[in-house]
Amino acid sequence: MAGRRMCFDIFFCCLVVIFGGSCGAEFVPVLVWESNKPTDVQISSPALKKYSTDDFADFFINKLSAFGKKPLVVVFTEENLSVEDFSWQDLAENSVFPHLESVIATAANVDFIPSVSNPLKALQRLEKLGYQWQTVRDLETMNVPEHGGVVMVLEMENAKVDEDRPDFLRRHDCLISSVYSRLVSQADDVVAVYTGRYSSWIEPENEPVLHRVRRLLVEPAPNATVMLMNTSSILIYASDKPQVTESDIKKILTLLPDTVKRKESATYQSVRAKFSTNSTDQIILEFFFFNSTSSPGYWSLENVTYYINSPNHTNKMVLTPESGIVAPVMFSYHCSSKTVFKAVNISLTFQNFQAQPYMEKTKAFDDAYNCELFFTPPIWSGLFVTSILAFIMMWGLAMIMDIRTMDQYDDPKGKTITISVSE
Q1: In sequence order, which residues have a C-beta less than 8 Å from that of residue 42 and are 6 or more positions away?
Q2: Distance CA 142, CA 178 (A)
Q3: Mean pLDDT, consecutive 10-residue segments, the chain of 423 residues?
Q4: What are the structural domains, with CATH classification, of the chain?
Q5: Domain V-type proton ATPase subunit S1 luminal spans what residues (predicted)?
Q6: Model pTM?
C-alpha cells in the first residue's frame, strides 16, 4: 500500500513539473527575413499560431534547407521583446523601427511569428546540422564569414540611464539595419532573425500605474491632428487641433513647424508659436506661465495672448482660462474635458489639454495634476448607493435584534406541556 502511494506521489509531482513548466514558458515574437528567395516554394507560418521550441526549430530548419548551400544566419537578440514593441507608435504615428521596415520592404521573404517558446534554444540546434555558432561581442571588430553555415548572434545592449524603451529600440533599429546591410553586401545568402529572451509587456502587472504619461519623442508632422509644442523647458499638448471662435466664426488652428519659440525671465516663462487657419490668416499664440506668488511651489498658466500675424491687425487680445490652471512644480496639468480661454467675443478651445513649464527634460510629462475634482459624479453615485444599502442592512439588523420570544412566563422547572395526537 505504501509503495503504491509513493508511486502516485511521484507521478503527481511529475505532472506538476511538466504542467508548471509549460504554463510558465515565456513566449516572445520572432521576425525572420531573407535576402534572397532560394526557390519558388514558400515556407510560411500559420498566423496566430503558438510555436513550441521544437515546432520553431523544425520550421526554421525547413526554411534553411530550401537553400542550395548553407546561408549565413544572423540573430539579433533583445533581452526583452514583445509584439507591442512592433505596434507602438508615437504621437506623430511613427514606429520605433523605421529602418527595419525599410529593410523588410526589400527582403525576398518575411515571416513574423508572434508567439514562440524559447526561440534561441531552437536556433542552437543548428549546430547539430554543421552550423558554426559565433557570438559577436564588438561590432567594430566584427568579421563577416567568407562562407555560409555560420550563425552570428548579436546581443543588443540594454537601455542607458537616460533612455526610455522607444529611445533604445530606435537605437537598436539603426544598428540592425547597418549590420544587415553590411552582411548582405558581402554574403550571397543571408537569413536574419530578430527576437528576444523574455517578453517585455509585463510592466502593467508588476508596477502600479499612477497616471498615463504621454511619451513625446518627436515633433508631430504638419498634418497631424494633435498639437504639440516642445521647447527646452516647456511642453504643451492637445489631442486635437485648437479651435478659435470669434464673433460666431470658427477657425481650426494648425501648428506650423519650426515656429515654436521660448522666452524666459525671473518671474515667468512663455512659449510662442504660429498657426495656420482654414482661411489665409496666420494666428500667433503665446502662453504665459508664472511662478505662483500666492502658493509657493506652484506654477500657473495665467493667460494666452492672441493676435493675427498681419500688418492690418495689430490688436492683441489676452485670453484668460475659464477655470484656474495651477499645478505644483515638477507636475504637469492635465484636463480630459475642454479647456477654454476667453475674452470679449472670442474663445480658444483645447481638447485633452496638458501642459508643463519649468522642466529639466522635455521627453515626457511628469505626473499630472488633474483638473477634475476628486468626487466626480460616478464617485458620488457610488457613495449614494452604498449609503442606501448600508441603511437597509442596519435597519434589518435592528429589526432582527428587536424580536422578542413569548417565553418570559414559562417555568423551566415546570412540567412540559404535551399535546397528544387525538387532541
Answers
A1: 109
A2: 12
A3: 48 46 68 79 64 89 85 91 85 84 88 90 89 82 82 84 80 90 87 88 43 42 71 89 88 88 88 86 90 80 87 78 89 90 91 90 80 76 94 94 71 70 67
A4: 24-204 (no CATH), 227-370 (2.40.160.110)
A5: 257-357
A6: 0.47
